[in-house]
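writing this on my phone so excuse typos. first protein, seq and then structure
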Amino acid sequence: MSPDSDTTVLVLRAVAEHVRRTPDAEAVRSAHEALDYRTLWERSAQVAARLAQLGAAPGTPVGVHLERSADLVVTLVGVLRSGCVAVPLDVGYPAERLRFMCADAGVKLVVGHQGPLSRLGGFSTVAADREVCYASTGPARPVPDPAPAFEAPEVTGDDIAYIVYTSGSTGRPKGVRYAHRNLANLVSWQADASGCGPGDRTLQFAPASFDVTYQEVLTALGEGGTVVCCDEDERLDPQLLWDLIERERVNRLFIPFVMIQSLALFADEATPRRHPLREILTSGEQVQCTAAVRAMFTRLPDCRLVNQWGTTETHVATWYELPADVTTWADLPSIGRPITGTGVRVCDPDGRPVPDGEVGELWITGAAVGPGYLGLPERTARSYRTDPLDPAVPAYRSGDLGRVTPDGLLEFLGREDTQVKVRGFRIELGEIESVLAADPSVAQAVVVVAGSAAEERNLRAFLVPKSAPEDTSAWTAGLLAGLRDRLPAYMVPVRADVVGSLPRTPSGKVDRLALATEGAA
């Protein structure tokens, strides 16, 4: 059977075509190995076959708990080919959160590296292929080796491709489902809109639990390019990242805006010859075209900055490629226009479109809209609606505010609730607050975002104790340490302040603006 005929997965058909046409081209590269397209396809088929051997049928949730590596790329492709539903489990998350995600999604089989797997609890390794292990909650039974031959299952566009977890306002993280048709539309559009193509190199920068990972990996492979893996030190250190871009000849980055800001601080020696970047794509935060950012792109005249906007529920909904002439950039650039097959409506509180120029909530419609939250029908019904202009088209209420400018582009104007984005991560402040308030010594807890510039944004907690602690510093330090055991690092406030009471607005609500101003002081 030829590579292009043994997959029914829409988003992988372009990848299969490159396997057929250029099997020896480099598909994945890490510090430890390089895989050509033929090997990637063969190893991903082994993953899919092993999952089937272990009882995972199409639609079965499968945890993916791998360190950054070629194994991660292979496994993401393999799980897609199997028809199973990937549940990314970030190796950097606290064990308690990972165990909740597994229980909530019904994960009984996990693909992972042996070290991280031990933290999940209740899983036993039942098979291994090279460094990749398969762990199950069932009784450990001998599994024949090697895995059987792969037989492609039928996978439809409405089948779920993955479930990723976002912060939840009630303290309960929400599982967001994304279908194969949604993913295929995104990747097809991204490949068409991109300035990269066959042989170009894309960095795998996003955390495994972040939906951008699929955008990076599948766009690069669908174009016939190479996915370049980095380690955590390179990912977090802008100087090491510049070195990696030069050494590996990276052409495209998908990175949060705060990393663009960090790269700009170390860009004095950036040149097109040493750093062959052609695209830097960013989402998750308001882009701010500071002098440092403009200077960096001036040094890299062949590189374009692309601002993307969307939510986890829709992934990318709009895009805007900033002009080649850096001097024309607005300080806060537009989020542009909708991607292919997708629309954006600016609506009033009753869901009626408002005239261009007026501020309203941004409703995303069409092909970008996923099927809803996992096991949360009421929350799904509130947020997932129908297009105000066509009830046959799905829509998602983003909770973001915006308006259409005179040139027909969309302007992003921030959140209308307590959901925020810090350093590229979407956070429900209520989730952090509920964890803090669960401590018996805490009477009230409020978390706000302090700092205006992207690189300065951080979380601050304000706590009202039930009784005055003997040692305030030790008490707040203990509460923050407890958060680190339960929440991802990006959700832990950098500081906690003890207050006698919380400021209120005239309507009686907590005055978060006053707290944010105090936190920034």
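second protein below, same order as before
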Amino acid sequence: MAHLLGAERLHLEFPTRTVFDEVTLGIDEGDRIGVVGRNGDGKSTLLKLLAGRLEPDGGRVTVRRDVRIGMLDQADTVDPEATVAEAVVGGIEEHVWAGDPKVRDVIAGLLGDVPWQGRVGALSGGQRRRVGLAALLIGDWDVLFLDEPTNHLDVEGIAWLARHVKARWAGNDGALVVVTHDRWFLDEVCTATWEVHDGIVEPFEGGYAAYVLQRVERDRMAAAAEAKRQNLMRKELAWLRRGAPARTSKPKFRIEAANQLIEDEPPVRNPVELNRLAVSRLGKDVVDLLDVSVVYPVADAAAGEPATRTVLHELEWRIAPGERTGILGVNGAGKSTLLKLVTGEVPPTTGRVKRGKTVKVAVLSQELAELAEWADDRVSAVVAAQRTSYVFGSGSKAVELTPGQLLERLGFTNAQLATPVKDLSGGQKRRLQLLLILLQEPNVLILDEPTNDLDTDMLAAIEDLLDAWPGTLLVVSHDRYLVERVTDRQVAILDGHLRDLPRGVDQYLELRRQQATDAASAPTAPASRPTAPTGPTAGASSAGAGAAAAASAPALAGADRRAAEKELSSIDRRLEKLQAQIAAQHEKLARHDQSDYVGLGALGDELRGLEDAVADLETRWLEVSEQLEG
């Protein structure tokens, strides 16, 4: 594999600390590297050094000639005065980018709900972030640096991004370096992991699961000061090894060592004990939603009459004591409405909500509103004002902890205990927010996007805390690893109904793909749409060009128009099948014996035939679209 870029003896200092000291590493073609580490240890700084955005105090970064480097950083760099179209495709002619399947795929995957001709400055922060990511991904890069690319993406968007970066290059081409707290994404995409800590970058083989295994082995040999983190990682490894086969099959080495490490490790949760405690704290009744529908009024000036939108339709859900449920759904599906029904913030339009007499609900919100009144107080004072002790665990393993010990368990140092709340980092505020809620001892806990601003270590610590929490847990999150880790059941809101998901997030994604396929095969309106279709699984081939087509009077009418629309829909389906065949052909080429030139030539000829077929269909797609547009 050819070398792309390298760093030699990098040294970087900030006024208060040394970030990197004598760091040497390299990136080769075919590398897919995930970067993990605690917040503030230098993950983003490392990417900026390697991408040439930041100069080191010592050492150097060398880049092979003609290597093209693209980077997504956490800053919002998109011109707010530009339109989405200008920001994404710039001055490229429409017929050029509309005929590029990669561009159409990116637009369909990231910008389904973004107005194509809208001004960037008028978009939400999450939409601007996706516009910046789309503008980067349509370019041709040899090395991609992505800093938290999964922020503001839902479960489907994250799955789409994983598929995109895996299919972006052939097996031994290009390189990806990604910083993310999304552990599913790390496991799905990455073949190597760099851990940034204590001024060094430590490499590990494999994705997140393999990294956890190697880290447990490293921690087992570490000093006694590492004992607490070692036990936490053992628990994380135990869950990984007991999890889905797709996850546990990733480590390619020392499986026996992993089994020895966890053979005496109990399950991460004792559901029988936790459910027993939950019943004793809650009683048998928690919250029952019985034939509940929620209808909101919507503005519809054209109708001349009040219009409504049904968010939830005749939904029935009986929440049990100790139930741990993850709730999935696209933005706007009704997840927040469902949670507000449980908390009582939203009354049902029809049906009724029945609550147990002892139910005490607490919500970990995204806004950190619970900390506003404590902004000027020290962390230690805030926690001391709540409770003097907290019982952690259950049964014979129950341990009484002081608030200080709880803070230490969540990663706070002695120095940070004297810090005013307003001066804490985003991740520290998030941990303090959760702690204050747990000290109130609710018996129903709702987590609304709890992973914001947290690194992988802190996520593992919070999951460990929740493992021993004896209550009913409802989780809404785009982090599928967290959802699968802390809940025992997953449900989805689809078309206003609650759908059980025995196979978890994978089943949800399959259902969403089926919805998109059904919608694409149904009779459609003219192709001249101002935006790309909703969702990353919509027909990518029609999305890109449809996004930029201007609405105008149709040239065809009657039977001719219906025939043209039918042909356009057929082309969309054929293009989607061909793209899947091309991706499979690339995988065949990557797996084929590279010394078998005859076989490689035959596979190459097949690939060129598929690409020619795509080009012909794209030309016809544009011709039919122009006829429909007039």
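Residues 248-254, 524-554 have pLDDT under 50 and may be disordered. thats all i got for now
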